[in-house]
Structure formats: structure tokens, C-alpha cells
Design brief:
single chain; Rossmann fold; alpha/beta; disordered C terminus
């Protein structure tokens, strides 16, 4: 590679917490319930609206979400139905920012002034202008229900609220959060008997609200799993909750009174998640409007999210130069390399994903993402933050001429990377743990790659064997096939 190309160290400045390696595990563990009900326990990056939006990259999905909310809030304030969908389903089959999106919706609704650059999030100019005219006086009633935070026998969410009733159901809790004691009184009998209210009852509740409302429901499949064990007459609490969600979805469709954001993701409760998704699909079949599906983080936005969170600044002018030189290099060896890396599309991909190599983004966003327990956005942020720290913390000077962050920078010598690898190994039939220690890296003696590198590093070369072995290890996790490197 041409030496005159600016290196990572010349074109990129990581955030201080990434440089120091002190980026806390809690910084990635966003919980909607903590932000809403225990804000003192939530990390500032999630709990503080100003910090949250300053660290948040405006993906297409997030723009779509907040634009729709702004449109409905403006419609409610104007007294004219906007026609925008009242039900938003967060499409997150294998992860991708659903909790982050719900926290964004919550902060946007409760603290619209925290969003300094509205044009970044509300791309429709007409909607943005309408929202600008109302946001200073806007008051949104919010109600939050996180399935993993409550139990099927105790739905009370805010333990600090001494006046809050000891609700037993999702509908009782949402009624209280939306409309206080007056709202709960309308549903108290339904709550006590654990019988779901109908659509007309929910519309009556909505009609008591002078302000627009927002209902956020997360981890609903987990709640269904618990509720299935609670008998209610000839049915179960899960059946009643299913009926309530149906009525809630219908009640949100014909006015801007209350917007419902529902997260249905494939989890350990996949069967229950499928039940809820079928409920939404059934609603589509009978409704003139379908629910508005939002994918919080698209595959091609993973690099942008990583760059925004991990780097304080990146010189975009360098991206084109690096992409051009890399492709020229690949074309000199086109007979030995895959066809795709010599095509113009790959050069464009190199520029778009800078300072990350496209193969790293593909690995995290499309390949490992298919494995159980790997959450794309959160998992990628954790791993790549450690990779960036490793590059900048290099005491031996082997990274001096680095231009891109690569898959081999997620090295098993890092404790967090190793623990992630161990979790991923559990879902692979092959014994990758033994292969990794034998071939790539071990603290107990030396692995094959470590021995091989002794032939190169004393002459000032990078640890080529370790780079190759680590890359093969990550690809082996995806394919489930061990490729020996020793």
C-alpha cells in the first residue's frame, strides 16, 4: 500500500473512553425500564436526553420513527387527523437497535428540546416545520411496559410512585401511566378480574387525554410466556393480553390520540413472538392501513453507527483516497483474489464503510448476526470498540501503517473478545475453543500463529500469521468449519 496514504492515526480520533479502554459494559446495556423508571441507575448516554442524542446516529429507521411521531403529535395538537399510522412495529429479527429506538422515541416525546438538529431526524420539511411550531409547548403522555421488567402477577412498573395502584395487567398499568388515577378507575375492574377491555373502552380512555400519548411496549413475548401460566376463567392471562393488544392496535388507528410502538423480536421466546407478529398481521388483513414497520438499523448503516459512537472525528476526505488505493492494490492481484473486490461496487463500499473494512462490517452485520445471542448493534459496538482500542494501544508499533480496522483486530487476547468468542462457540458443533488456543492465541505457551510470527515481527513486519489466523477464526464461527492454520 502506498505509504503517502493517511493512516488511521492521522485521519481518525477515537472518543476518549474508547482510547482508554474504559467504555463501560453498561454503556451498551440499554434498558428502557431503567431510563423511564430508574433514571438514576441508567448510564448518562441513555438516561440524559442531551447526551443520548449527541451520541446517536440518525439512521433511516430512526428518522422514519421520529418523523412519524412528529406528524401525529402535530395532528393531535391541530385537532386534525394526520392520517399517519398509529401502530409502529419495530422490525428487529436479529437485533439492530430496537431498545435504542424506543429510548429515542421516549426522550423525543418527553424532551423535544433535547434534539438540537431536528433536520437530522425529521427529514420531511413540512412535518419538521409543523413540529417546530408546537414543540416548545408540547406535553406528551407516555406509558411504558417492558415484559422482562414486570411479572405476570404484578404489573406495577414505577416502584417509587406511592400513589400507583398494584396493577395486575398490562391494560391496568398502561391506563394508569397514561391518565393517572382517573384513567385507572376506568380499567380497575378489568384489571382486578384480569379480563381485557374492548376497543371502545380503550377509545374512551384515549378521549380523556388532552395531550397526545405514546405507548411503548417492549419484550412482549417474554411477558406472554409468563402470562400463559396464569389462568383466567376458561382462558389465560396471555390470551387476555392478546385480546387487549388487538383492541389497542385498532383503537390507535383512526386518530392521533395515542401512538403505539411495539417491539416484536426473535428471542428465546420465539414461539410467543410469532403469536404477537401474527396478531399484527391479522390486523393488517382487516385494516385499511397496515402497521408501520421500522427497521432501526439497516445492514448498510452498521458502519455509520459504529463510526459515530466510537470516533470523535473522521476525515471523510481520506475515505475516497484509501478506497481508491486499496482497489488498485486488489486489482494488481486480481487472479488470486475474489472477483468482487476488484469491482467498482467494492470500491464504493470501501469508501462508505471507512474507517472499517467492508469484510468486518459484513461479518458483524450479516454473518455473525445470524447466530443466537448476538445482538447486531450492541455486539458490534462492544467488539469494535475493543478492536479500536487495541490498534491505538499498540506498544510494538506493528500498526503504524494501518488504514482500516479489520476483523483480525478483534483478537482473542482481549478478555472481552475472548468471552464473546466463547459464547459464540457454544452454538458451533466444532471444537473451536481448542482450535483457537492451538492455532491462534494462548497465554499458556504459544499457539501456531504466535510461533510463526516470530519469523516476521523481529524484521519489523506485522504479525501476519496472527492476522490470518484470527480472520479465519471469525469466519469459522460463521461457517462452523475449522480451517487449520498451523
Amino acid at each position: 500500500m502506498a505509504p503517502e496514504i493517511p493512516t488511521l492515526f492521522e485521519s481518525c480520533v477515537p472518543h476518549d473512553d474508547v482510547l482508554s479502554g474504559t467504555l463501560s459494559e453498561n454503556e451498551f446495556a440499554a434498558k428502557l425500564s431503567d431510563v423511564v423508571f430508574r433514571p438514576d441507575e441508567a448510564p448518562d448516554i441513555y438516561g440524559d436526553p442531551d447526551t443520548f442524542f449527541s451520541k446517536t446516529y440518525a439512521t433511516d429507521g430512526l428518522q422514519d420513527l421520529l418523523t412519524l411521531l412528529a406528524k401525529r403529535y402535530a395532528g393531535k395538537e391541530a385537532g386534525e387527523f394526520s392520517g399517519a399510522d398509529g401502530l409502529l412495529s419495530l422490525d428487529t429479527v436479529f437485533g439492530g437497535g430496537k431498545t435504542h429506538s424506543q429510548i429515542a422515541a421516549y426522550h423525543f416525546s418527553r424532551n423535544p428540546g433535547a434534539v438540537e438538529d431536528l433536520d437530522k431526524y425529521i427529514v420531511d420539511e413540512e412535518v419538521r416545520e409543523e413540529f417546530e411550531s408546537i414543540k416548545d409547548d408540547l406535553s406528551v403522555r407516555t406509558a411504558v411496559f417492558e415484559g422482562g421488567y414486570v411479572s405476570a402477577t404484578n404489573a406495577k412498573c414505577n416502584k417509587e410512585d406511592e400513589n400507583a395502584p398494584n396493577t395486575q395487567t398490562m391494560w391496568g398499568e398502561l391506563a394508569y401511566q397514561l391518565a393517572g388515577a382517573e384513567g385507572y378507575a376506568k380499567f380497575s375492574e378489568y384489571d382486578d378480574e384480569q379480563i381485557a377491555p374492548g376497543e371502545s373502552d380503550i377509545v374512551d380512555l384515549f378521549d380523556t387525554l388532552d395531550d397526545p400519548g405514546l405507548v411503548l411496549i417492549d419484550e412482549v413475548a417474554q411477558y406472554f410466556e409468563q402470562a400463559a401460566a396464569v389462568g383466567v376463567e376458561e382462558s389465560t392471562l396471555a390470551d387476555q393480553t392478546n385480546s387487549f393488544l388487538w383492541s389497542l392496535m385498532r383503537a390507535s388507528q383512526n386518530s392521533d390520540a395515542v401512538t403505539v410502538i411495539l417491539s416484536v423480536s426473535a428471542t428465546a421466546f420465539e414461539e410467543r413472538a410469532q403469536e404477537v407478529q401474527e396478531l399484527i398481521d391479522d390486523l393488517d388483513d382487516i385494516s385499511e392501513r397496515t402497521e408501520h414497520s421500522v427497521t432501526p438499523t439497516e445492514d448498510d448503516e452498521v458502519a455509520a453507527v459504529l463510526r459515530h459512537r466510537l470516533f470523535e472525528s473522521v476525515d471523510d476526505s481520506v475515505a475516497s483516497e484509501v478506497a481508491e488505493e486499496y482497489q488498485n492494490y486488489y486489482r494488481r492481484f486480481e487472479d488470486e483474489l475474489p472477483d468482487r473486490v476488484t469491482k467498482a461496487e467494492f470500491r464504493d463500499q470501501l469508501e462508505r464503510t471507512y474507517p472499517f473494512h467492508p469484510t468486518l462490517i459484513d461479518l458483524l452485520g450479516k454473518e455473525i448476526d445470524t447466530l443466537p445471542n448476538f445482538q447486531r448493534t450492541r455486539g458490534a459496538l462492544k467488539l469494535v470498540s475493543r478492536a479500536v482500542h487495541r490498534i491505538w494501544d499498540d506498544d510494538e508499533g506493528t500498526n503504524d501503517q494501518r488504514h482500516l480496522v479489520r476483523a483480525f483486530d478483534m483478537h482473542p487476547s482481549d478478555e472481552y473478545v475472548w468471552s464473546t468468542l466463547l459464547e459464540l462457540f457454544e452454538h458451533i458443533d466444532q471444537d473451536l475453543r481448542t482450535a483457537s488456543k492451538s492455532d491462534v492465541f494462548t497465554r499458556e505457551g504459544k499457539a501456531a500463529c504466535q510461533y510463526e510470527d516470530e519469523n516476521w515481527t523481529p524484521m519489523g513486519h506485522p504479525p501476519i500469521a496472527t492476522h490470518l489466523g484470527t480472520s479465519i477464526l471469525w469466519k469459522s464461527i460463521v461457517s462452523g468449519v475449522i480451517v487449520a492454520v498451523g
